[in-house]
Design a protein that fits this description.
Strand content: 5-15%
Shape: globular
Structural class: alpha/beta
Distance between the termini: 27 Å
Number of helices: 12
Radius of gyration: 21 Å
């Protein structure tokens, strides 16, 4: 195929075609960047739309170099989803803050505790982040986790990785003004989770996630709970997170669909668990 520098379609339509391709098929972006200068300008922001470190030792330096050479507005406009998910510290907390300092337009943020400390909270508070997935205990000084912090002002979806030691925070869930979806670790006592639903009518879904298939299956004892209560397996959690970030149906969307079906009587009242579903891998698209 010959790649033409001169446009064939009207500029508005041509741009729409390339941007749509970059959004739906992010793996094609490196090729699109080489088509023409105008196409590079249109599609390069999509390269940074979803940032997921995943322990790639080449990714972090490349991203930091890009941040040093591009105006902050580029990253504010381009980046919408960030996850720092390596099991080893491939990036420092200071570098996390450097990235968040320019990626102020993010909508979702996820991280393991290795990349968090109390100083990160103020950087998140400068954004309008709507979806959080993290360890609250690492984001605040010991014993002082605060759900009234400004970083939670716009949060609609909150996934708390902490174990049952933070169950004492659950009565503060109503402090989150925009929250509609909450996910908790499987160590959380079930009665504590159900109490949140009783006391917080604004919640549309409370999802309890398991990481181990054996214990997940053993938890499936038929019982009538609040229709908004759901348990599920998340053994490929960050692939699922990225699926949602790229516009696919993640566990939140599948949970919403489950609740709708149950409300309509299409799922028996005593069932509160989802089927196990394979999650698409996006490893080829990591920056």
């Amino acid at each position: 195929m010959t790649i033409a520098e001169e446009p064939i379609l009207p500029p508005e339509l041509e741009r729409k075609v390339f941007e749509t391709t970059a959004f739906i098929h992010p793996g094609t972006i490196p090729t699109l960047l080489r088509v023409a200068k105008r196409v590079l300008i249109w599609t390069q922001p999509f390269l940074y739309r979803v940032i997921r470190t995943n322990g790639n030792r080449h990714m972090s330096p490349a991203l930091l170099r890009a941040i040093a050479t591009k105006p902050p507005k580029f990253f504010h406009d381009a980046v919408r989803h960030i996850a720092f998910v390596s099991y080893s510290p491939s990036i420092s907390v200071d570098e996390v803050k450097q990235i968040l300092g320019v990626c102020t337009g993010i909508l979702s943020f996820g991280s393991y505790s290795l990349f968090l400390d109390p100083s990160v909270a103020s950087f998140l508070a400068e954004t309008r982040v709507q979806r959080l997935a993290l360890n609250l205990g690492s984001l605040f000084p010991p014993g002082s986790a605060n759900l009234g912090h400004p970083l939670f002002r716009y949060v609609t979806h909150l996934d708390i990785f902490d174990d049952s030691s933070l169950v004492k925070l659950l009565p503060d869930i109503p402090l989150l003004p925009a929250l509609t979806h909450l996910s908790l670790d499987s160590d959380t006592p079930r009665e504590s989770a159900l109490r949140v639903l009783q006391e917080y009518s604004q919640l549309e879904l409370l999802f309890v996630h398991w990481l181990d298939e054996g214990s997940y299956k053993s938890s499936q004892i038929p019982h009538v709970y609040d229709v908004r209560f759901l348990v599920g397996l998340c053994d490929e959690y960050w692939n699922d997170w990225e699926l949602g970030a790229r516009g696919g149906e993640d566990f939140w969307a599948r949970g919403d669909d489950f609740v709708r079906q149950k409300q309509k009587g299409e799922i028996e009242a005593t069932r509160y668990w989802t089927e196990l579903e394979p999650v698409q891998s996006f490893s080829a698209y990591l920056i």
